[in-house]
Known about the structure:
The complex is a heterodimer of chains A (about 280) and B (about 270). Chain A is an alpha/beta fold and about 280 residues long. Chain A has helices at about 50-60, 85-90, 105-110, 110-115, 120-135, 150-160, 180-195, 230-235, 240-245, 250-260, 270-280, and strands spanning about 5-15, 20-35, 40-45, 65-70, 75, 90-95, 170, 200-205, 215-220, 225-230. Chain A has a single domain (about 5-230), classed as Rossmann fold (3-Layer(aba) Sandwich), CATH 3.40.50. Chain A has eleven helices and ten strands. In chain B, helix 5 (about 75-85) packs antiparallel against helix 6. The interface between A and B is medium-sized, with 39 and 28 residues.
Amino acid sequence: MGIIKASRLAFDYLKTDEEGKVESKSRAIDDVDLDVEEGDFVAILGHNGSGKSTLAKHINAILLPSEGTLYVDGKDTRDESKLWEIRQTAGMVFQNPDNQIIGTIVDEDVGFGPENMGVPQQEIWRRVEDSLKKVGMWEYRSHSPNKLSGGQKQRVAIAGVVAMRPKCIVLDEPTAMLDPNGRKEVIRTVRELNRQEHVTVLLITHYMEEVIEADKVIVMDQGKVVMQGTPREVFSHVEELKGYRLDVPQATLVAHELKRAGLPLPDGILSNEELVRELEKI
Amino acid sequence: MLREITIGQYYPADSVIHKLDPRVKLAGTLVFLVSLFAFASVEAYLLATLALAAVIRASKVPLRFMLKGLKAIFILLLFTVAFNLFLTRGTPILHFWIFTVTKEGVKTAVFMAIRLVYLIIGSSVMTLTTTPNNLTDGLEKALSPLRRIRVPVHEIAMIMSIALRFIPILLEETDKIMKAQIARGADFESGNLIRRVRNMIPLLVPLFVSAFRRANDLAMAMEARGYHGGEGRTKMRPLVYARRDKLAYSAMLLYLIAMFFVNRIGFFAGLIQW
Lengths: 282, 274
C-alpha cells in the first residue's frame, strides 16, 4: 500500500440555510481512487472547479471524506486521535504566500510547525537551519517575510513544512500567484526535495510546464479522475486534454499539430529540446 | 503613502537595554511610571531624570527618536498645562481678564507636564528597544499566572503577534484598493467630513472582505501545520533570565528606595521652598 491511498473517495460541499438545514449538496470530488507510492512526484492537473484543491485538503485532514476512505501512511484521516500525526506526515503548502506565513521573522515562521509539535528547543533550531538551507533561504533567516519576493515567501512556506519532517508534501497551486521567476524557483526547490530527500510530492497545478518532470500525472475534471499515467502518456492525448480545458506544453502542441499535418513524429513530446531532436531525425 | 506608517517603532542597536529580557523592560517601565506618580517633588524628579538619562544613554537610541513620541501628545500636553494653570485654586500670583494664575497652579502644571513627558519617553525606551514580537512574548510569559483564572493568555499573545504581522500586509492592500477605486472615479480627498467618511465605504468593504478571507486562509494554514493552542507547545526562543536581567531588577529596586528617600528629604525642602 502506498503512502496515500484513497478508495471511492467522495466529498460534498453542503449549502445550509439559516437554521443549519442542508439546502443543497454539490459534489466536489466523486469516486476518486488514488494510490501514491512513497518517494513519488505526482502532479494533479485540472481546470478550476475540478476538485483538485478539495482533494488536497483531504490529504491533510482539513476536510474529511463524505464517502469512501482515505489512508495517509496507513492512518485513516477520519480517526480524530491520529489527526496531528496525519498533519505531520502530510505537510501542506497553500497558494497565497502571505496568508500562510505566521511568523514576523523568517526563522520564527519555519519554527512554528515544530513548536506546535512540542519539539525540544535545540532540535527546533537544528531543523530550522536544516530546512532553510534546503530551500536556499538561510541567508534570509532574520528578515521580515514582508520584504521577500513571492517566490522567496513560498520557499519559506515550504521550509516551514519541511521542518516538520513530513513524509509527504502537498502543494496546492503554490505557483499560481507568482511571476515566472518565482515559479521556477519554487518548482526547482520542490523537485530537489523530492530527488534528494525522497519526500513524496503531490503538486497541484494548472501550469503544464511544471508537471513534465513528475513521475505520474493525474488529470481531474468535475470531481473525477479522468486520466492517469506518466507525463508522456497523458500528454499524448492532446485532444482529450483540450476537452478538459487544459493546455498542453507548447512543444507538445507544436508536435501534435505537425503530426496532424503529416510529419512522422512520435506522441507525447514534452520539451523543446526533445522536439528539436525528433525534427532533426526526420 | 500608507506604507510609511510603522507600528512598533523598534530601533535596532546593540545595547544592554536591547538585550534585556522583555519582562524586565515591562517591569522597569511600570516601576518608572509608578514612581513618577507616587513621588512628586523636585528632588524625586531630578533623580528620575538622572535615571531616565542613564537608561537612554545605555540604550544607544538617539534622543530624537525618544522625543518623536511627544509630538503625538503635544495637544494633550497643552491642554493639561492650561487647565492646571488656570483652574487650580490657591494664592494668586498673576491676574488678567478672567484668568487667574496661582502659585499652586504653576506647581501642578509643571509637575503634570513633566509626568506626561517622562511617561511617553519612558515607554518609548521600551518600545524602541524591544521588537514587537519580543514584547508579546514577554507579556505572554509575564501574564501566564492569569491562566489559572482562565484568561487565554497564549491566545491573546498569538492574536497580538498575528495582528502585527498583518498590519503591513493590510496597509499595502488598502493602498491597492484605494488606487483601484480612484481609477474608477472614487474621491477620497474632497468634501466635508461626513462625505469623506461616506466615500470610505468602497474602500472599507473590499478591505474587510479580503481581511476575512485572509483570516480564513491563515487559520487553515495554521491548522495544517499542527497548531492546536498553547498546550504542549515548545518555544524556539524561550525567555530565560540572564545575570544582567537580575542586575536590572536590583537596579530597579535601588531606584525605588532612592526615590523614596529623596522624596522624604524633598518633602521638607519643599516646605521651606513653598
